[in-house]
Automatic annotation (TrEMBL):
Residues 1-33 form the signal peptide. This is Laccase. Residues 80-192, 204-331, 587-647 form the Plastocyanin-like domain. Pfam families: Cu-oxidase (PF00394), Cu-oxidase_2 (PF07731), Cu-oxidase_3 (PF07732). Keywords: Copper, Metal-binding, Oxidoreductase, Signal. One of its GO terms (molecular function) is oxidoreductase activity. Belongs to the multicopper oxidase family. Transmembrane segments: none annotated. PROSITE patterns: MULTICOPPER_OXIDASE2. Gene3D superfamilies: Cupredoxins - blue copper proteins.
Length: 701
């Protein structure tokens, strides 16, 4: 075996069977592969949440011989110098934000040793978009694939780099760690890259909303529906950097070379913001992949990337050198701008809905763009310089998968038509169980529970007592929404009805799905804010298709309910317009619009407010796979469920995988037998020693 070392990484080439045996995988592995290793140190940090790590060219000039060298590629502000309004208790991997890049070739084995040095929290890591073929225990969600990696311990994840594409990793411990900094990109290069001749270089760009106190906004009262604790978004970053052009917070830059064509791999790693619409001034873009899956190239002038989604575009740097504006717009937030948006009960107004970076031509003589005032009442927009001062208009499609029209913009590069009928159909409903009012004595996160409906049960997620995969869902999962898919089923159709006034972004672990149908409601689009507060009399949904989020709660569901103070009705007009309702999929009317020939292949999908979406997936990858809303506040409030796929074929759990709870791991019988034998041996030896000591004591008497 030959070993090649790089910072935080070791590669082994070619694949050595001895090392693969040490990987303890019960599944056969490909012969021609590399083993790519990383070592991660997860620690608590105090950072400026708008710029947790800062390129050394910003801070290091003239401060020592190692500044800016290969030994010091990032720096951090000393906590004593951070303004208290910007100071954040962060959790970072190897001191970086975003965290380290994982880069491998399709079919490689990836090994990541996670050393948990957090002071008071366990952690787990999920590999968002990777399928974990043969290693479902490495998927990461706590109490589904594994128990937490506890403080002062470590665990090594081992999995196949599959499929090829743009992905990312993040903590799957709770709703906090990802927004506190535990996330980073994954790039898996295809064995046969279909678009390789279109570009000469690559860059990764992660966009995310940023939060100083995710504890307040994502886990406690701030996560509850109908509360004014936190805005939908205030700040957003490009590769971990927010900027307004000042010396303290310079603009984030994507530095490029003129004459080169770049594959820009965009990742929305956000927490609460539902989406960002990305535009690049002066440069036409060709979209080539969504969620890691290649599509037929199409020129786009903008693309909407939802929470958890990825979009790959090719951009050629063929303009005059300068600084060209890049915009990330949260269009839903723009409807709630302070002083300009519409009033929504329980929602805090937002201070900003657009954030900016610049495409920077290396070597340009143009001056840097001047600062702008991000929270000015007139909503200033930065201006580019050099060639970017007057950029040419861009052309192309507007790519937005929020509503049906976006699905006609492109199709898979290699379409795989589906059969007319699936093997089984399920209906999943997204909604809220009330009541939602916030009172001083309410227990946090106990009011207003989100759910993913199974067979009308309105089941909100509760944590199983032992990891579901470790018991095949047969122990410790009482009252947990687990869908046992029949063993003989291959193709599953999911009808997803959203019975709420908010969009949900759903992500499926363990594989791709095909989006075959999406609602088209002209009365409920991003431009028609009235959809949020439609009264009963103006409800355009046919009566037979209406459903309510909580049929048992009059505050949420009963249109004619009026609260009283004694005998006097309060006559609150908004009570007559229940917020939590939706217009369900009606197969007899809606099935004719489905696309079985060229449906887009994805692992993350937006389900618009009061709307529905239909997807199909192949239930052929044995494991316990999470299906959940990817908006961070919806996780602790229960919008999750699990698909239990082919339990009889699920591979044995390696004995190194963290577990906990009262239930035994189904495949550890030999370990338990040995533990029992060891216990008997220890007990026998202890007993014999006791008798010997007792007899000696009697002799002395």
């Amino acid at each position: 075996c030959q070993f090649f070392f790089a910072p935080h990484q070791m590669q082994v080439a070619p694949c050595c069977w001895l090392l693969l045996l040490l990987a303890a995988s019960p599944w056969p592995l490909p012969v021609a592969c590399d083993v790519v290793r990383y070592q991660w140190d997860v620690r608590d940090w105090v950072v400026d949440f708008l710029r947790p790590t800062i390129p050394t060219e910003t801070l290091c000039a003239g401060r020592g011989p190692l500044c800016g060298s290969a030994f010091s590629n990032t720096a951090r502000e000393v906590p004593f110098h951070i303004d208290s309004s910007k100071m954040k208790s962060a959790q970072l991997v190897n001191g970086l934000y975003p965290g380290p890049l994982i880069e491998a070739k399709e079919g490689d084995m990836v090994e990541v040793t996670v050393i948990n040095n957090l002071r008071a929290s366990g952690t787990t890591i999920h590999w968002h978009g990777l399928h974990m073929r043969g290693t479902p225990w490495a998927d990461g969600p706590v109490q589904i694939a594994q128990a937490p990696i506890m403080p002062n311990t470590n665990y090594t994840y081992r999995f196949e780099a599959y499929p090829a594409g743009t992905f990312y990793w993040h903590s799957h411990m709770d709703a906090l760690q990802q927004s506190k900094g535990v996330k980073g990109p994954i790039i898996i290069h295809a064995k046969d890259e279909p678009f390789r001749k279109m570009y000469t270089r690559e860059k990764v760009i992660m966009v995310s909303d940023e939060w100083r106190d995710p504890e307040a906004c994502f886990k406690l009262d701030g996560a509850m529906p109908g509360n004014p604790v936190c805005s939908d978004a205030v700040y957003a970053s490009f590769n971990g950097q927010w900027g307004d052009g000042t010396d303290r917070y310079p603009y984030p830059l994507i530095t490029v070379q003129r004459g080169e064509c770049y594959r820009l791999r965009w990742i929305n790693s956000g927490g609460n913001a539902e989406n960002f619409i990305i535009t690049l001034a002066g440069h036409n873009a060709t979209m080539i992949a969504v969620d890691g899956s290649p599509v037929k190239p199409v020129q786009v002038q903008s693309f909407n990337i939802h929470n958890g989604e990825r979009t790959d575009i090719v951009v050629c740097m063929d303009q005059d050198p300068g600084y060209y504006l890049i915009t990330a717009e949260y269009d839903y937030g723009c409807r709630m701008l302070r002083g300009k948006g519409y009033p929504v009960p329980g929602f805090h107004p937002v201070e900003a809905c657009r954030w900016y970076a610049f495409l920077h031509y290396e070597g340009t003589t143009a001056p840097p763009p001047p600062p702008y005032r991000p929270f000015h009442p007139h909503f200033e927009v930065p201006r580019g310089t050099g060639g970017g001062a007057q950029p040419r208009p861009t052309t192309g499609a507007v790519f937005d998968l929020t509503l049906r029209e976006g699905y006609g913009v492109t199709e898979p590069l290699h379409p795989d038509p589906l059969d007319a009928e699936p093997d089984v159909r399920y209906m999943v409903t997204l909604g809220l169980k009330g009541p939602t009012e916030v009172r001083p004595l309410n227990i946090p996160s106990s009011r207003g529970r989100w759910y993913t409906d199974l067979d009308g049960r309105r089941m909100s997620w509760t944590s199983p007592r032992s990891p579901i995969l470790h018991t095949k869902g047969r122990c410790g999962a009482e009252g947990v929404p687990v869908l046992d898919i029949p063993e003989n089923v291959t193709t599953v159709e999911l009808v997803i009805n959203n019975l709420s006034p908010t969009e949900h972004i759903l992500h499926m672990h363990g594989g791709y799905f095909r989006v075959i149908n999406v609602a088209k409601f002209d009365w409920c689009t991003i431009d028609k804010a009235s959809c949020f507060l439609l009264p009963k009399e103006a409800n355009p949904c046919p009566a037979e298709d209406r459903d309510y989020g909580d049929r048992d709660d009059p505050w949420l569901a009963v249109p004619d309910f009026q609260p009283h103070v004694g005998p006097v009705p309060l006559r609150l007009p908004w009570v007559k317009a229940p917020l939590y309702w939706g217009c369900r999929y009606n197969r007899s009317k809606d099935e004719r619009h489905q696309n079985l020939q060229t449906p887009l292949v994805k692992d993350t999908v937006s389900v618009w407010q009061r709307s529905w979406t239909v997807v199909r997936f192949h239930a052929t990858n044995p494991g316990a796979w999470l299906f959940h809303c990817h908006l961070q506040p919806h996780i602790p409030l229960g919008m999750m469920m699990v698909f239990n796929v082919r339990p009889s074929a699920q591979p044995p759990i390696p004995e190194t995988v963290p577990t906990q709870g009262p239930c035994p791991v189904w495949s550890w019988a030999k370990k338990y037998e040995q533990q029992a034998k060891d216990l008997q041996t220890t007990a026998r030896a202890t007993y014999n020693q006791y008798r010997k000591d007792y007899e000696a004591f009697q002799m002395e008497l």
